Amino acid sequence: MNIKILNPNLSVSAQLLSSEIGELSERGVRAIICNRPDGEGADQPLFSEIQKAAAEYDIQCHYLPVTTGKVSDKDATTFGHLLNNGGAIHAYCRSGMRSTTLWALSQAEKLALADIVATAKAAGYDMSGVAARIAGKAGDLDALRSYDVVIVGGGAAGISTAASLLSRDASLSIAIIDPADKHYYQPGWTLVGAGVFTPEQTMRDMASLIPKGTEWIKAAVAAFDPESNTVTLEGCRLIKYTRLVVAAGIKLNWDGIEGLSETIGRNGVTSNYRYDLAPYTWELVRNLQGGRALFTQPPMPIKCAGAPQKAMYLSGDHWFRNQRLHKINIEFYNAGAVLFGVAAYVPALMKYVEKYQSALKFNHKLVRIDGDKKTAYFETSTADGNTEIVSREFDMIHVCPPQTAPDFIRSSPLVDDAGWVDVDQNTLRHKRYSNIWSLGDVANAPNAKTAAAARMQAPVVAANIIADIRGNHQVAHYNGYGSCPLTVERGKIVLAEFGYGGKLLPSFPKWLVDGTKPSRAAWFLKEKLLPPIYWQGMLKGKEWLVKPTMNDEA
After folding, report:
1. Which SS3 state, helix, strand or coil, does residue 527 take?
2. Is 254-402 a CATH 3.50.50.60 domain?
3. Mean pLDDT over all residues of the chain?
4. Annotated active-site positions, please?
């Protein structure tokens, strides 16, 4: 735990974990302030979890969530009032930056501006932007640090795009903006939840993955100003770009289901969509001797639409192999109307639904969970077209949370009416701003939101940016490719590969891998080959099987 001291009664840090509360208690902390909204990151414990752990040490908790880069004077005033309550206080957010910004603004009339900046700098936080705000000074755009390409997001899509760009032109000045210390191979979490991978196998330090020749700006983006070609970072710092790539990922909205935040990670409630919860899935599956196991899928779009049923299949397989399946009732509640969106793969999946005796419940949206009573509540339609709420008790439940674009994206001028970055689905260029591209989960192209899609998209974006720089009127087109390795049992996968309109786009000859049937070869690909391809190929700009073809612009 990397604690930074701002004054004798206030410390700040990056995301706090429940296991670290004891250390704060030993330091004499009597109150904790959370400045990070729930659902910002896949590895983020919920405030309710922190609050519950803190209560065991008689530490008060205050929830003052602040959206990155949007620290208001009102927020700062409230923060200042909390500091006046006396005793040692610890504040946290994703990196400590927002908490420090709140402190700086709350001290504007109490401390000299130079002292505020110096104190924050000693703790490792740059408050120069906040100082300009306090002093009422406007930034000089001509004096800003500028880059040929700025990439927002250091996930699979962002890093791959940077690497592909540099493989084409190593002279480009490129910056990746991302506040995270860790990078996750999220496709691996399904296998963590099945006891195949350990969590640690899916994680790397972000610093080790930033492509050589790329500058990493370890901060969060607050806002976009496409008219002036700038992005605003937390702390009010401005970065200027010639071309911009938005690869900001997706937000898991845990609060979108009533009661979920209060019970996730206990009471038999789990999700493979969070790094620290996937091991709990495996714990529940191993220990369940009988009862009812529920698996849920929210309305689309979501990241990796097959993941909710992957958890169901792998759990069913474990219970089948251990002669427990006859004691366990499996039920799959899908807010949609079909098992899988591409019909060609459904027959193979249905054989496993039948094998595991899973009851399919379509048009059932999870809306509430009562963890203490182990009861889930679903909204569904009646025969007369009305809606009703039905309840179902459970012994374990795997939840896929509803998902949206990140808050700072949805409030930006870059989005469509649904809140996703508005791009041409073929070129991935923004429909209104010609020097902006977007890819990955945050873009509104109608493809499956998978890592495989980002792997195909990154070279397309890189090739089109280079073509734009050089005035080349040829462009690369993205065909909507996405892949969903459906883990139907331990050792076999239905390898779904498809593009726009559900067109099948297999990568291998049918004699090697028939994607419409369960395959051991596809499991070998998922378990043994795809992780190194991800770490050593995709993130290094190696465009194996995905190198784009340039065509005359239509």
Report:
1. helix
2. yes
3. 93
4. 304, 484
